[in-house]
Design brief:
This protein has one domain (about 1-155). The protein is mainly alpha-helical. The protein has helices spanning about 1-35, 40-50, 50-75, 85-155. The chain is about 90% helix and about 0% strand.
Length: about 160
Amino acid sequence: MASTGGGFLLGFGLCLLLMSLVLVNFVTSVYGELSEYKNEISMLYDITHSPGYQDVINALNALSNVAPSIRDALCNPLISWMSLCGYGEELTKTISKAANYMIGLQRASEELYYTYVTMPMAIESLWIMALVGLAMIGAGTALIIRARRKERKMIKIR
C-alpha cells in the first residue's frame, strides 16, 4: 500500500512540478512583455475609468435613446427636400456603436490592468506549486524506498 501511495505522490508531484515550471516560463515571458508597456497600461486604465470617460459613455447612451426621434425628425416629409434622412439613420447607428465601443474598451483595459497587476502573484504561486511538487516527489520516493525495505526484510525473515 505504501508503494502505491508513494508511486501516486511521485507521479503527481512530478506532473505538478513540470506543469508549474512550464506555466512559470509562460507567465514570466508574458509579464516581461507587458512590463515594457506598464505606463501605457496604467494610463489607459486611468483614462477609461475616469469620471469624464464615464460621463461621455452616459451622454452617448442618453443620446442613443434620443437618436430615433432625431432620425424621425430628419426623415419628416416636410423637410425631405433637404435630404437629411440618411444622416439620421447613420446617427442612430453610430451613436450606439460608439457607446458600445467605449464600454468594450473600458472592460478590456480593466482586464489588461488587473491581469498585469496579478501576474507577480501568479508567478509566486506557481513557484510554490513547484516546491510542493518537489516535496511530493520526495515524500513519494521516501514511501517507495520504505516499502521496498520492508519487502526485503519480510523476504529475509521467511
